[in-house]
Amino acid sequence: MIRKYDITRTTFRSVATALAVWALFATPLSASAFFQDPVEQKEEAEYNLYKGEVLDASSKKPLVFASLSVEESNISTITNTEGEFSLKIPSDLTQANITVSFLGYSTQTIPLSQLKEERNKILMVSSVLKLHEVNIEVPKDAESLVREVLKSKGENYFDAPTLMTAFYRETIKKRRKNVSLSEAVVNIYKTPYTSLKKDGVKLYKARKSTDYSKLDTVALKLQGGPFNALFIDIMKYPEYIFSPESLDYYTFRFDHSTRVNDKLIYVISFEQLPEILDPLYKGQLYIDAENKILTSAIYSLNITDKEMAARMFVRRKPKNAKVWPTDVAYRVDYREKNGKWYYSYSNVLLEFKVNWDKRLFNSVYSMTCEMAVTDWKKNMMEDFPKAKDRIKTSIILSDEAIGFADPDFWGQYNIIEPEKSIESAIKKIQRQLRRANSDGGTSIP
């Protein structure tokens, strides 16, 4: 008889607490002022903006989530799903170098003086290795290496309170069309990786708009906001995927090796044991071979029971509809500074089907959230926002602000460059809002 382990169900629940979806009947489109904390407003510094794309040197294909950082600073950004980037750099950093890195490619260092304001093309050269080509002793046991990495997080990751500035975006698509966009700049009060205290998040600036006409009278809302992306930080929150007990329910094996930032990286594949019936995860861990450090993780949930998955992820729905996830995928990346590593980027993809009573076809929605740390500094005073100022894990970001009116809304803050599909959706929504305003609707700021 195959045993159904209770521990896996508990682990699955812990992830779902932050990744919940509200499928509600839509309400009429309205508009209100952008959310902005007046206490946090600061004088805009002058900056130079550089735009371009990062491509594979051979195929000229875009490299998605490539990292760009400014040397001698903590400023950084990443490329979007079309390989495009925009990087804002203070005007006084005229002699800086830009470091461009991507998993499996040789790192590039480019003097800022060589970049133009627009249409920069950065070509990256692939650097993939086989284990037998590596002049380093390969551990025999992949699982033991993973356990060692998780155990040594206090030595390798930030051990001091840190204040991070991050850009966060949520996107809801009906099939391939964007129907809801939410964006925010947040302050993350990151506690040391050895601390059991959870990180605090304060919303600084946000904007949002939704085209409810494309939602079949249903508005899907993602509960959790920035915490959805933050809790994917495996080294801070290992209990959401690799608790000490659940590690026993996986198989780990060495895959090919690669490089990132010119460091040798082991790639370890993992998946749940076949006798485990409740859904766990499968994917790849990218581990620094020399220092035993997790640099990236890409994995997905093994959804075998859609009814149970629906109970875990769907908080509320119309009575005449069934809603369940068909794909749940995650990614987290870390970056190194002065010998210590820190959380730098993560994303979550949730794909759902909505099956309506007495309708021939299903509706398919995908919900994506991503967050990129664009600047940080040590939190020397160990400041932490009061409870009334912190956003809660139950937040629904799209309820906080409405409208896409000001093209310069983000000012000096680095953001993830919007994809062309998002840009076109924003323009379409802006036209709809202006039309509604001219017909006597609520004014848009």
Please render the helix and strand layout as text:
Blueprint: H1 6-16, E1 20-25, E2 35-36, E3 47-56, E4 67-70, E5 76-78, E6 84-90, E7 97-101, E8 108-111, E9 120-124, E10 128-129, H2 142-151, H3 153-156, E11 162-174, E12 177-190, E13 200-210, E14 218-223, H4 226-230, E15 250-260, E16 263-272, E17 281-288, E18 293-301, H5 306-313, E19 314-316, E20 321-337, E21 340-356, E22 363-378, H6 420-438
Parallel strand pairs: 1-19, 3-9
Antiparallel strand pairs: 1-14, 2-13, 3-6, 4-5, 4-7, 7-8, 10-15, 11-12, 11-22, 12-13, 15-16, 16-17, 17-18, 18-20, 20-21, 21-22
Structure description:
- This protein has 445 residues and is mainly β.
- Helices cover 13% and strands 41% of the residues.
- The chain has six helices and 22 strands.
- The protein has helices at 6-16, 142-151, 153-156, 226-230, 306-313, 420-438; strands spanning 20-25, 35-36, 47-56, 67-70, 76-78, 84-90, 97-101, 108-111, 120-124, 128-129, 162-174, 177-190, 200-210, 218-223, 250-260, 263-272, 281-288, 293-301, 314-316, 321-337, 340-356, 363-378.
- The strands form four sheets. A twelve-stranded antiparallel beta sheet has the order 2-13-12-11-22-21-20-18-17-16-15-10. A four-stranded antiparallel beta sheet has the order 5-4-7-8, with no helix packed on it.
- The termini are far apart.
- Pfam families: CarbopepD_reg_2.
- Keywords: Signal.
- Residues 1-33 form the signal peptide.
- This is CarboxypepD_reg-like domain-containing protein.
- It comes from Zobellia uliginosa.
